[in-house]
Amino acid sequence: MPAAITPPAAPEVKKNLSVPKTSFLPTQNTEMAHKKRKIICFSDFDGTIFMQDTGHILFDAHGCGSTRRQILDEQIKTGERSFREVSEEMWGSLNVPFEDGFEVMHQTLEIDPDFQAFHKFCIENKIPFNVISAGLKPILRKVLDKFLGEEESGHIEIVANDAMITEDGSEWKPVWRHDTELGHDKALSVQEARAEAHLKAEDGTIPLIVFIGDGVSDLPAAREADVLFARRGLRLEEYCVEHKIAYIPFDTFADIQREVVKIMEEDERKTKGLGKPARFNPRANLWRRVSSQQAVPLLVASTPSEEEKMFLWPNAFSEFTPKGDRIAETAAS
Known about the structure:
The chain has 333 residues and is of the alpha/beta class.
């Protein structure tokens, strides 16, 4: 009878039982942007952060009134009068002390319900947030101070015109950023402002530029961003769809926050923060220049195009319509 042969012992197989780390980045992780690409946000004010137009509220309540304002807006649209000339008439029609004028804005303005949470997210993740507006800086700052608190408002850079307002409110006069017919410096053309440049953030990476807006007036600025957010159902989104411009729709700033987290994760996965952003638009160098110099982009030419007019004269091209009114208009049509 043959002897039994014991088979050799099988080599021990060591299994890696560790659970792979998920790639999900929680929105409240304040360190998640520390070693990643710098992101810089630029946002419109009227119709984006706030649903109404601050100037329109003042003009309708304490100035020329809604009927005259609409006539003046049409004059800008048709080119009959310049933006600066019409704006000076609108602001000059006001006869109300600053604090009293602010009171009607405080009662009327509606802030995006998730803006404050998004702005805190930006602060925690070292994402600079900038407001770009054709309005008056003292008004915008006062509104932000009231709705956000002065400490939080202080984190927001505002690029807008200044103003001279008498104590009794009998005279409101814009102080234009540049002494030209349009209120901007003509020496720097749009083409020069949009010229490609090798601009880098402090840590040697190329920052990713985000622009947030609502109306067609935001389009010239929006075209210069790496990532564009357009408020859903309003004119900027409609224009983007019609002209096949890449954008991300949003209903509130909570939508933007979720998308920014995804974008941060995507860029880290694809580029490790090196070189160009995963979502790169060469025209965004305009805003990269702005962020490096902390100055307003000079979007102006001697004979501005229709898109440039929309940026320079936003009130004539964009008007917030409450949701209920939009539904009624759709039903009527």
